[in-house]
Amino acid sequence: MTGGLTALALEQELLGELRRRGVVVWLDAHGTYTPFVDGLSARAKQGEFPFPVVAFRGSFLEIVLALEPYGSGLDNAPLLIHMPAFTEDSIRATPVLELYEPGFRFRKDPKTLVREVARGRVAPDALEQYLAGAGTVDLAAADAWLASQLTHTREGLAALLEQLGPTLVLDALVDVLERRESFLLQRVGSDAEREVLEAWLARQTGMDAAWLRFYGSDPKATPLASVAGALVGWLLSVEYVHDLNRPPFVAELVRLRDLSAPLVKASLALVDHIRGKHTDSYASLADEVELHLHEELPAIRPEDLGKIDTFRKEEQRVLQGAVDALRAGEWEKVRGWAEARNEERSYWLRRDPARRRAWELAREAAALGSMLTARPRPLEGVRSLDAAVERYAATAYEVDRAHRRFEQRQATLLDSQLPHFGDLKEIVRVLRSAYRGWADRLARDFAAACRAAGFLPDATLQQRAVFEQVVQPLATDERVALFLLDAFRYEMATELLAELKAPGTVVDLKARLAELPTITAVGMNALAPVSQGGRLQVSGTFGGFRTGEFTVRTPDDRARAIGLRTGAKQSVLLQLGEVCELEPEKLKRKIASARVVVVHGTEIDDAGEANLGPATFEIFLRQLRTAFAQLQKAGVKSFVFTADHGFLLLDETTQKVPYGSKRDPAQRYVLDEHPRAEQGMVNVSLSALGYDGLAGYLLFREDTAVFATGNAGATFVHGGNSPQERIIPVLTVRRERPLGRTLMAYRVDAERLPDAMGLRRVRVRLRAAHDDAGQLGFVAAPAVSVGMRAPGHPEVRATLKGVSGPGAVEDGTLRLAMDADWTEVFFALEGPSSEAVRLEVYHPDAVEKVAPKPLDGWFDVDWRRGSVEPVAPQPERVLDWSDALPAGGVRAVFEHLAVHGAITETEVTRMLGSPRAFRRFSLDFDEHVRKVPFRIRTEPGSDGKRYVKEGER
User: How far apart are CA 842 and CA 795, in angstroms?
Assistant: First the structure.
């Protein structure tokens, strides 16, 4: 067995595979490695190789006996089996198959092995010439040839370069190009030294004399700088060529496709190194290389390019292609391009937030378009309500979810600073029109099912039966939290479901049909136990439902009815925002006597009527997760989430249909004394819907059009008979074991940065903090969500526009991993007035221990048209200027100054606790003064310095 470089490299590779894979079956098609394996087997028997080696040498009986001590291979203990002259097919006819199938197949072309070992040691041309003339490669001969090639490359400059390695030499060459100090400026001065450098670079990367001639030299640059520029051009061109989906146009680039795999791998690693270490320089370096490839890049098409945008023009061309493909409805093509171009993968997008947002919008648009194409008519041919609900809950909801997400993201992302803004705005319009057509077809098919089977489903699908069939059985044994949520669509519940799944938790989502008309006064009150014999006693014109001695029409009435039905046990009514903000212990005391905790949430409906719908959906879903976590901490183990109705989003594609005067209809239904047969409408009697106490008929549109009522400004509508309005969720969550205590405590570091491109900017990171006991926890969450808010100003909303760094935006919050680097956050701050506010970074989910972090300074709020309703009640606390100062003595000094107007050195020293603390205060005084809203004059006094307040800034 040879003991040279190839044998050593092969042995190390085998050791790695054995440790990772366990059983390794080596298919040696030509028996080339038989002498090597025999030597390895002998060393294994002597204990010099750590794992057993079994080799087939012509007798199946012998190999079966040799393998007998190693069992079936199911324990996956490391074992090397050498099978010369066998392939994937022929091995199946041998007794080794039992170990081959669960094991790992190993193969190694001898020429590939020699190339891997020779890379960086031997000139590529010499290596290929040797391999071409060698025929069948013999490892001993290859080692001898390598040794002869290496004897004259280990002296002087060549030895220094070998010692430094490719990355350090590349760093020095980049320094030369950037006109910074570099050791190569002193070591490479003569033509002979330059030739040594070129030869060494050729061995490392494959860059040869032909490339140096093609790339040329800058007459204004030094010879060393020309070599450095050519190397960068070579490396970037190798990456570009090997990412292309077609051969290059330029002949000099075509031959790069034949570069050996080890040299390609080394070149790609060096490109990654430039982008990682020389981030700022990469842009100018790549732009310079683009100029040398002026015949290649202008001709590229988006379809030609792969997943890596080496050059700026590539990303620009693919984004233009993505916009064109969106206009053409080529959704899957865009999804492929967009998935390959996120901030983590694309250098160019990391540097340009506007282009990142454009790609994110393209990704969401393609997702919606794909869904519309995949589910063209989900309810076609359905003739029963059971089947309609089943089909919607199986597939159709995915389209509505994709549409809502698209509207959420476009409301956040689309602005005039985006590249291709006009085209993207048109794509939004086209997708809205396509979705409107889809929703109209869905509504008509659902209306046809209602005509055929009736509008009132069986009891198992009725909204009025939710309490008796779902809530009351749970409340028999333990406390239940019942979330009654206004306008909580079924598709939203599917998203919440994924968030609430956890070990020890059982979740179940069922669909039901809301009562008609799908308005709050009907659906919300029907969720209380008001059904009598399956029918509802209407009070007034849908002014509530009568039950026993009172009428259920308000949240308090619903809580009262629920309490009476649960065996006279008291129920507690809480608002969603209240649950989010209460301390767990206080919440626990508040619900201690209740069998059912009723949580009332109107945030979606309020936001829709205030023209803020899509922008606030993420906030609402986040509030639900927070409330769920809060109630778990308070001891609740069973939860039911349900809704009064769903909704339809409104936009410019919504058709408005006149009906009588504008006072006659509601936006989505008409209550009439007669069963009018109007074109495009369906009608149903109130009696057929199981209502008593009110006579007449309800008329609904078959599609998603709204009646012209003169009511403008809302972003969504409900009241009709479409699946989006009628199909509601009943999401049941039960924790089988108690929620474990969170051990880890976190600290948010946050710093304000200058505004950029019309957006506010901060950078944040997550670190471990000491918990109450002064000890660190041991188990950290994979990521923790953080958001921004203006305490005391719930009407001000911080909307995340994009991030740069390791963090990621999910559901409107920023997800941070502990100990990751800084994440730069771009956000808009909107509210009903243009005042300045203080901000803090906080943990909105209330799951982990994260203390809020106030940000320094005041942030200007951009005025937003329309009345903005509070979407997340905040604590009764407003950040003051003093929050920016260190807590304790320093803050007390400036608060004293603010109230009394002056303070002496003696008083300051007493408040700080020691003369040493005063000296530190003096050193940091100017930094502290920048954080207070008034000017301070320092003057001499009998007790040392005297600080005097001089008025507001």
Answer: 17
What does CATH list as the number for 5-115?
A: 3.40.50
CATH of 884-952, one of 3.40.50, 1.25.40, 1.10.246, 1.10.10: 1.10.10
Question: Which residues, in sequence order, are CB contacts of 405 under 8 Å at separation 6+?
Answer: 364, 367, 368
Whether the CB-CB separation of 828 and 802 falls below 8 Å is answered with no
Tokens of 412: 């956040």
Q: How far apart are the first and last CA of the chain?
A: 84
Neighbours of 849 (CB within 10 A): 18
Write out pLDDT tens, residues 699-716: 999 999 999 887 666 788
b vs e for 744-762, b when ≥16 Cβ sit within 10 Å of the residue's Cβ?
bbbebebeeeeeeeebbbb
Q: Which tokens in the block code for residue 941?
A: 């006094």
Q: Is 764:749 a contact under the CB 8 Å cutoff?
A: yes
Supply the mean pLDDT for the chain. 88
- For residue 161, with 0-12 CB atoms within 10 Å meaning exposed, 13-18 middle and 19 or more buried, which class applies? buried
The DSSP line for 561-623 is: HHHHHTTT--EEEEEHHHHHHS-HHHHHHHTTT-SEEEEEE-HHHHHHHTT-HHHHHHHHHHH
Residue position matching structure tokens 């001891």:
635
pLDDT digits (tens, 9 = 90+) for 853-897: 999 888 988 876 444 444 443 333 445 677 778 878 888 898 888
Q: Is residue 777 scored above 50 in pLDDT? A: no
Question: 851-879: string of b/e by CB count within 10 Å (b at 16+)?
Answer: ebbbbbebbebeebeeebbebbebeeeeb
Please say whether the beta carbons of 234 and 211 come within 8 A: yes
Give the integer Cα–Cα distance in Å for 149 and 127.
10
Query: Looking at the predicted structure, is the pLDDT value of residue 380 above 90?
Result: yes
Gap between the Cα atoms of 663 and 661, Å rounded: 5
Task: Report in angstroms the alpha-carbon separations of 373 from 324, 327, 426, 528, 771.
Answer: 18, 14, 19, 40, 52
Closest CA relative to residue 811, chosen from 630, 615, 640: 615
| Signed CA dihedral, 4, 10, 13, 15: sign only | negative
Q: How many CA atoms lie within 13 A of 550 on its CB side?
A: 14
Q: What top-level class would CATH report for the domain 459-648+716-735?
A: alpha beta
Q: Residue ranges per domain, the chain?
A: 5-115, 158-299, 319-453, 459-648+716-735, 745-879, 884-952
Residues 9 and 139 sit within 8 Å (Cβ to Cβ): no
**Residues 266, 120 contacting (CB under 8 angstroms):** yes
The reported pLDDT for the residue numbered 340 is 84
* CA distances (Å), origin 860, targets 167, 174, 234, 324, 868: 46, 42, 48, 38, 17
Least confident of 18-27, 55-64, 904-913: 904-913
Q: What is the pTM of this model?
A: 0.72
CATH topology of domain 745-879: Immunoglobulin-like (2.60.40)
Q: CB count, 10 Å around CB of 820? A: 14
Give the per-residue SS3 of 465-515: HHHHHHHHHHHCCCCEEEEEECCCCHHHHHHHHHHHCCCCEEEEEEEEECC
The pLDDT value given to residue 527: 97
Q: pLDDT: is 4 or 95 the higher one?
A: 95
Reference 366, options 394, 392, 341, 383; nearest CA is 341
- 308-337 burial, b at 16+ Cβ within 10 Å, e below that, comes to bbbbbbbbebbbebbbebbeebebebbbeb
900-908 long-range Cβ contacts below 8 angstroms, 24+ apart: 901/948, 901/949, 902/946, 902/947, 902/948, 902/949, 903/946, 903/947, 904/941, 904/943, 904/944, 904/945, 904/946, 904/947, 905/941, 905/943, 905/944, 905/945, 905/946, 906/943, 906/944, 908/947
Residue 137: pLDDT band with limits 50, 70, 90: confident
Query: Encoding tokens for residue 817?
Result: 């991993």
